[in-house]
Amino acid sequence: MKKIPTPLVRDIHFDLNGIQSFKDEMTNSSIKNSELLLDYPTVYIVNNKDKKDKYNIYIGETSDIISRTEQHLKVDPTLREDWLEFYEAEEARMFVIGHDYFNKSLTLDIENKLMHYLSSVDSVEKVYNRRTNQQNRYYTSNYFEDIFSKVWRQLRKENRQLFPVESIIKDSALYKASPFHKLSEEQLHAKEKIKTKIIEAYSKNSETSQLILVAGEAGSGKTVLLSSLFYEINKLQQEYPENIELSNLNAYLLVNHDQQLTVYENIAKKLGIFHPKNNKIVSKPTTFINNHLPEEKVDVIIVDEAHLLWTQGKQSYRGKNQLYDLLERAKVVVAVFDINQVLTTEQYWEQDELQNIEKLAKQNDNYIYLSNQMRIAADENTVRWVRTFIDDQVVMNIPKDTKNYEIRVFENPEALHNAIKSKSSDGRGISRLTATFDWEYIDKKKPEDSDYWRVKENDWSIPWNLQLPVTPAEKRKNRDLSWAEQPHTIEEAGSTYTVQGFDLNYTGVIIGPSVKYRNGKIVYDRKNSQNKKATRRRTLNDGSQEYLSDTLLRNELNVLLTRGIHGLYIYAVDKELQAALLKAQDGKLN
């Protein structure tokens, strides 16, 4: 394998004296160093640390670092507030990065990934970049990952607070939902199609609302696509400066999930995405509907986890269907939807209604399906095993995975929990224990006969999520973190309410007594579920009241079994299901 040279990094004062000193240093430096930093493409990071030890940063790339920096210092402060802030800061600094392999495409990719990493760092308050620059293949693209890691390690030698170890960044929910991910061809095509549709609708100023439906199973890259779209739509005025109309276009992002809401609020805050009238640009659907009248349509609403929208009224929502209400309030609604992740009766779509919204999208060529499974790092046989377990309700022999994805069945939940704790501490990423909602949990209420609401099996138990106490300092530190990112949650069991929409390295799933194995098939028993929102009846359009628990409990299991990137650890409470799984692990099922 070819040896990759070490990057050259210089940390200088970001002012005119600093750039002059840098020029003088390079003049007296070796010819190679001088050429790499002065004559060839470079990447640079301007950063300013405030009194709270938080950084504001800008990442750029250029073929002439001296003239580019002088422009930032002499011209840009008169045009943009962010550059004026850097200019007036007493301790603003700039890292200049050079490398033997740098060319225009490679520096753009390095710039983009630095934006991705640094927007996920706790100590970074704001990233002032205005657009992404994802590149396709180019001459040195095969070396990109190695070069980037070397660049990051060199930067870390200069500032460990601003540049933490890569594994910490990759564990963060902000990183996983970042708009700066390098998109697949399928995602890129979808994003460009949606952007074009939005621009066309905005330019025509049509009164008819458009629905763009993005469908795909768990792990197909819907959230990353949506995040990238949200960022770029709100930055269109920079992409099309000649189009004065687009400078006023704005997009709202809605999600009916507390954990995901926190992540998106942080992304918007760090990337400076805001509404000029100070309206909340990221919120829950009910909040948005209650604060916006149909007569005052916004431009774009993007809905993540649109399968969590309510399709019937309740105490806090007086409408009948939140998706239809949103269509009344926007020129374009982009909804990311997976029917197999609907979890409660209040989210349920009857078949004819589901066909109607698909038809509405398809008639305008606005239906997009993402088919590539991107979460589970497993081969086709393993993915098929998981899908057969969920979709066909059949247990097959567990295949040996050629990509080292690990499906393991444990003899008891304690052994499963210990294995998850071991995986979570081995440096490969966050792993957590989860369970089907088959043990009682009442939010904001203490149990009468126990310290916590618990998942219990024989003599073993573990608290349900969102209960273990933390110190005030820990609470402040955890404020912007999802449930799984908080260290103490390794001693809790997560549910769909805390892990839906998130990736885990390894997922442990305790399959409770609502999931049984009878006569060679998996069956669902609503009487053994504590998820009242899934087991109660729903009044359908024809006036009949039906139980939907077979569908909703299967969807609950679908969410839990598809969280793990590298592994899935299982224990089943039902004896027949547990016996079948243990046989499947040994390849002894007929």
UniProtKB/TrEMBL annotation:
Q: Which domain of life is it from?
A: Bacteria
Mind telling me which Pfam families this protein's record contains?
Answer: SLFN-g3_helicase
Residues forming the GIY-YIG domain are: 39-134
What InterPro entries does the database record attribute to this sequence?
Answer: GIY-YIG_endonuc, P-loop_NTPase, SLFN_3-like_DNA/RNA_helicase
Protein name stated in the entry: DUF2075 domain-containing protein
Species source reads Fundicoccus ignavus
